[in-house]
Prior knowledge:
Blueprint: H1 18-36, H2 40-57
Amino acid sequence: MITDYDLPVWFWDSETTDEDRHVWMTQERCRRQAMRQRTAYRRRMEKLAERATRRQQARAEMVNLEEYR
Length: 69
């Protein structure tokens, strides 16, 4: 099955029920719709991504510490 979903590893396991797949797909569709619209969820996810980027850039090995001494 070809989709543009990033399916979790457990999705096609034999012990995964159709109900589990249905719940996951419903939640994923809701998440995608929230990201397409200007919702609080989208703003929160964008801020988390920005914060992660800033933290990565601020790591000691990424910043020249000589400028701060």
